[in-house]
From TrEMBL:
PROSITE patterns: PROKAR_LIPOPROTEIN. The lineage of its organism: Bacteria, Bacillati, Bacillota, Bacilli, Bacillales. The keyword Signal applies. InterPro entries: Bact_solute-bd_prot1, SBP. This is ABC transporter substrate-binding protein. SUPFAM superfamilies: Periplasmic binding protein-like II.
Amino acid sequence: MNKKKMTRKWMLSGMALSLLVPTLAACSTDKGKDSDVRRTLRIGTMSGSKQDEIWFRQQFTDMFELTHDGIDIEIVPAIDYTENQFEDQSKQQEQPDPLEKVKAIMTGNNPVDVMIFDMSMLSPLVNENLLKQLDPLMKENSIDPNDFVPAVIDSIKEQGNNFVYALTPTFTPSALYYNKKLFQKVSAEMPKDGMSWDDVFNLARRMKSGTGKDAVYGFSFNQWGGSENFWDLQNFAAPLQLKMYDDKAETMTVNTPQWEAVWKTFSDLYKDHVTPRQEDMNAMYSEPKTDGRNNPFQGQLFLNGKVAMTIGGYDLINQIEQYNDNADKLKLERLDWDVVSVPFHAGHEGVGGSIYLNNLSGINSKAANPDDAWEFVKFMNGKEWSKLKARSTYEMPARKEFVKVREGLSYNVDAFTKVKPAPMLQSSLKEQKLLREKPNLYMVTELGNRFYMEVMQGKKSVKEGLAGWETKGNDLLQKIKTNPKGQIDGVFDDVYGGGGGGGIMYDKVEAAASAG
């Protein structure tokens, strides 16, 4: 969800905000301080700019300032990316270290009081004693950790050595969506919460039927359908914590039974048309329009009843609503759907990909204004604010009491709350540091993508693909060791398609790192 869309959603909530102001004001407190004496609360963010500050204030601080008369908010970004936008773009820019930048604004002569950050930062900040433990403050203010979604609070505790050092008002979950009519048609048992990936794939094979334009596919890793996406494979494997290379990025670690099992899973589903192939999707795109009308949902196989199950984010509900609201106009069949929790890998129960905790707020252990800092963290994660954020259509409130089915709909809303996020290796601080020191490491991912595509197209077996990735990857890692940032030619010349460096996968690695 981009910031423009989020800003529009905020504006649409304006009337609701005005109605909540009296309630929020009544619940606010300045801890007995003289409101005539103004204080400044410094809030740190991982990145930002003057333009972003307007959006950030609307999202996080405007209502707090409105209900806390004696406090002024100062926003302090750890990284201001606008500083480099007027530099010579023909030269490769040195990427800043997010952790070091965050530590810089949390220490020194004028440290921030509150820090807002993503999940990748929590453990390092705790281990460097830069965050104040919140458990005593929560107990003093009768804030029960059990009031929060277990998947959220448990993840926070795991990164905080079993203590709470930060809270978040919202999280972005995913679930397994399924088409009820397709299951009823073949008298198959409906999916349920707590299924393993093997359970889902076995069920998907049963649901596969038909050919050509009449085909129905059992499962897709995303709502659009295509299964040859290397990003989907990485996301699927995230709970397994499979690494492409060692901690020094000098030796490949992909030619293993674990990697082989993941690649074989995808290859078999693709080969057997359990998940749709690209040519299957092309056939759908070439179908004539319904009565000459444009079908804006034509490319989404799940919405069109062509896929029995798919992994989707919470915001997929928006598209389903829009589809069903317009189905009669388009003369399409309405989608009868529900959701269950994201499947798990054996030995990693309750952990899945595509679940994010991005707006954690914690108190700097060196805060000059710790009382107001706690007031802000308490307010941001309190009941009144959670009630307001519960209106969001792209993220869910972290407080259990506000996790509710949207008005007019009926679905298993608890499915979104049962799976903890699996940390993406590309998002880890250690991996981010390696990518900054050796930006050419993106080529290792692209190299894997090339070999993976050859496997999916039947040009290589899984074993051959992984062996090729290992061999070519080890050669590439040695070149990167001596040339971490400069041009490296000839890497892909004898692999799928030949040619250059594959910036698409680099963008996705960077996107994963920034998403946390």
